[in-house]
């Protein structure tokens, strides 16, 4: 991999977008590499949580690569959007929990990448924004869809139409960032959260992720029914038996993830 660093430790995969000279901008090569890494990790039972971050202390990802995009034609623009949308959708649907550790600029495609993750933790110097209309384009890595779902239609329109960059505190206020930390502690906090989630019934976590992600794309009655199916499925797992037995025996559960 040229532009992605992958580290693994005790069930946590840390993916770093590594193009610091371009503030980790996503060119198509990087998107393809990211896609390959995501596909591989999705198959892995020994990896239970994923953290995505950017190289250096200035940027998470400063957007799609403007140098690469400047001479695209309409067909190539659409292909780029579809490539990124597929990779981000694969991230959203990974069986593992995915935490974005937003350590600086998360602009355009960077903000869109963070929104494909389950949880966004930001450092105090993080800046979020969708600058695309200032470049004469629209957000194309699913920002027009994920942003309104996360922060509401009005706020999403304001951010996209004005291109205003917001700081981590404001991102937290509008619920774009789940939590804000000092930059030096961001990765430790992300690992801490990953470990906390991994200490639960991890298969149930994965099912809850599916219930939320898929249910939100259904009408409410279908979503309730889908939730009931998933809830029922839990009663065929060892973790449900162990979790409830441990509660009754007043001890910590020993989950197996199945
Ligand atoms: N694409 C390509 N290169 C980029 C880049 C990007 N998105 N963002 C930054 N860079 C490059 C700069 O060109 C510069 O390269 P050189 O040293 O070769 O000149 C280097 O990274 C450092 O950047 P700056 O000198 O600009 O750093 P700064 O601290 O002055 O500013 C910044 C930081 C505010 C993030 C500024 O770089 C910037 O505005 N970047 C572009 C942000 C942007 O518009 N992103 C959206 C892209 S469009 C998109 O993402 C579409 C979509 O929906 C997917």
Question: How would you describe the shape?
Answer: globular
Q: What portion of residues is helical? A: 40-55%
- Percentage of residues in DSSP E strands: 15-25%
**Total DSSP E strands:** 10
Question: Could you spell the SSE succession in H and E letters?
Answer: EEHEEHHEEHEEHHEHEHHHH
CATH superfamily of the largest domain: 2-enoyl-CoA Hydratase, Chain A, domain 1
Distinct compounds present: acetoacetyl-coenzyme A
**Which ranges are low-confidence, i.e. pLDDT below 50, for 5 or more consecutive residues?**
none
What is the rounded Rg?
19 Å
Cα distance spanning the termini: 32 Å
CATH architecture classification name of the largest domain: Alpha-Beta Complex
Classification by helices and strands:
alpha/beta
Question: How would you concisely characterize the structure shown here?
Answer:
By secondary structure, the chain is of the alpha/beta class. Strand 2, helix 1 and strand 3 form a beta-alpha-beta unit. Helix 1 runs parallel beside helix 3, helix 4 packs across helix 5 and helix 5 crosses helix 6.
Topology:
Blueprint: E1 4-9, E2 12-17, H1 28-42, E3 49-54, E4 59-61, H2 66-69, H3 74-92, E5 97-102, E6 105-107, H4 109-116, E7 119-123, E8 127-129, H5 143-151, H6 153-162, E9 166-167, H7 168-173, E10 179-181, H8 186-198, H9 202-215, H10 220-234, H11 238-248
Parallel strand pairs: 2-3, 3-5, 4-6, 5-7, 6-8, 7-10
Antiparallel strand pairs: 1-2, 8-9
The protein binds acetoacetyl-coenzyme A.
The site of acetoacetyl-coenzyme A (CAA) has 21 residues, from helix 2, strand 6 and helix 4.
InterPro entries: ClpP/crotonase-like_dom_sf, Enoyl-CoA_hyd/isom_CS, Enoyl-CoA_hydra/iso, Enoyl-CoA_hydra_C
GO molecular function: 3-hydroxyacyl-CoA dehydratase activity
Enzyme class: lyase
